[in-house]
Request: fold
Amino acid sequence: MMKRFLLQWFFPALLIMMPHISVARQDPATVQGKGDSVLGSVLEKDSILIGDQVWWNMTLPPGIWTEGIIETPEFPSLPFEITRGIEALSGVRLDSVFRKKNLESIRARILLTSFDSGSYQLPPVPVRLLRQDGTADTLWFKGPLLKVQTIPVDTTSFEPYGLKPQMRYPITTGEILALAGIVALVTGLVFLALYIIRRRRKNLPLFGPVRPKDPPHIAALKVLENMRRQEIWKKQKAKLYYTLLTDTIRVYLRDRWGMQAMELTSGEMIASLEQRQPEDPLLSGKIIEVLREMLSMGDLAKFAKYTPSESENEESLRQAVRFVTETARYEEEKEE
Amino acid sequence: METVNIKELNERIQRESAFVDIMTLEMSKVIVGQKQLVENLLIGLLANGHILLEGVPGLAKTLAIRTLASVVDAKFSRIQFTPDLLPADLIGTLIYSQRTEEFQVKKGPLFANFILADEINRSPAKVQSALLEAMQERQITIGEHTFPLPEPFLVLATQNPIEQEGTYPLPEAQVDRFMLKVIVDYPKKDEEKLIIRMNNSGEFPTAATVLKPADIRKAREVVREVYMDEKIEKYIVDLVCATRRPEEYKLPELKSLIAYGSSPRASISLAIASKAYAFIRRRGYVIPEDVRAVAYEVLRHRIGLTYEAEAENIVSENIITSIINAVEVP
Reply:
């Protein structure tokens, strides 16, 4: 019955009332004791490294809490240097220890730490017991020895280390593939550009098989033959007919002698051919005269609204064919 | 479709242009060499366009126009432009007559068929304007009276390409009123020898009067009838447009060299001058050669060059050559 009372009412009330009890402890009128007792206490570890923390456990013997109210000391502020070199990181905490649902003991704990190496004798801690009959008693927990160790540094064999290099991030397969793709793409583009430039320089089509370009006289004769077959002059299109005829001759002159014939007038074309006459045996005075006649007729038809007769049209075509055929002979021999 | 009887047209041109050879022959009696100058004087005369002559002194500019006037039986005036010249010195003025107690019109030297405005850039702008206005309007107003100028009326203005100090360069708008700008060059060696001989002998041949002003008017009408095909018109437009937008004619390098291109007046002048050239060549129709033959004289003073072009010593003739070589001939 007594144990039940303690567990349900008295001990919780004790925990709640601890601060008030500590105030009451300072009241000299209530401090009356029969005699002080010295109790043992233990550290969870008797040796710690600098900066480590350790619990200091103080266990009240069984039966004592039934005698009255337990009053623990209070530290003014935390952390509190409990003795020189040892700091308390917590106040005195009371804790109950049960075994098989039965309260076995009450434990007081203080969390300690130290930042100086050495052996320290912890001071005794008083716990007041206020009995129900109005008397008080002080229980002293004897301070154990705490050894604070430091990390040994061998200064004789100490060698300073240089800065660590930056850690290399491992290259992934994805990265390698992306890089390889970019390199392949750039290489492909470079080759494509070189291919296009080469084809352009050679005046070849970009894609497809290379068709050999007709020699100037073949190309001209093809056009003239086409005109002969179509008989454009019969369609009342004399101007168009002579424009095509003179343009064909201009293209031939351009490709055959490299003349800028598209931008030359009829007179300038004849003058240019006459200049080349001494170097080119195929350019006889007679053949130049043939071309002059054809170009003059062309000028009349194109610029003078002149409508040549059918025989004149046919004669102009014959003259053009004759000029091309006679001046192209040298090229044919050269090709053979 | 209207067809032109080319034979008939050519025969007519042969008939009407017969005076060209006689005129050239008479002029060549007095003027040694300078065939291009004489030919351009004829073009100006036939195309009814004024001419700006540029050349150093002593190249027979004055003699050429004086001879032209004597060949045509026309009145000739020579005006030496000086800084103190006044517009009234050109066009004339009103003079108070004490006898009639009225103002009488005293006509100036502009009332002539052929005017030689010597060193036109030596006079200030107001005098230049008076002349150029008369050139454009072909009439002069003195006081309240307006007088038409005689036909033919041809102004030949000269400019000295050197000694530009103290001159008043003609503004572009006024230069544009000259149909042709002819550069007069030095005579050839043989021609110069002949000039020396003529001067040493002291016998200066004179040109006979072979033409009347009415003949010129008639010839001008025939010149206007010379057929110009639309292909030639397109070629002329292409040439003129190439001075404005050279990049459209595959000449992007000229874009930075041309400050401004030729005006539509250039197209008109190029067309009529080409017709006159075809007439001189006894042809009733214009061919691309005719256009190219007068292109330099018509276009050279109508192309404005940039500072960049001037820095590179590029002249308008270089621009015209590039354009002629790039524009496709029909």
